Amino acid sequence: MCIGLVVLYTERLEACRDFYAGLGLTFQRERHGEGPEHYAAVLGEGVVELYPASSARPATGSLRLGLVVSAKDAAAARPTGRQIVTDPDGRTVEVLVR
Length: 98
Fold this sequence. Notes:
By secondary structure, the chain is mainly beta. It has one helix and seven strands.
């Protein structure tokens, strides 16, 4: 079993895209039918999506993510090992760089 989809709703869409891209995710802009434009990135066998928050879908609150990235895939030069960082919405992201 693995996680197939993680959707984060944010009021800081571009800042969150830049943050997660800096960890090594490659986002594509998408729009499904009448839905809002958002970003999606493949992560292993799953997908991470960043959606703009709205009154119907408020910003994702307290959440802790754990990501494992290859040192060669991390866009920012990050040392190997475990690091705790915070995304633009204040979510804790644990990054393990191998």
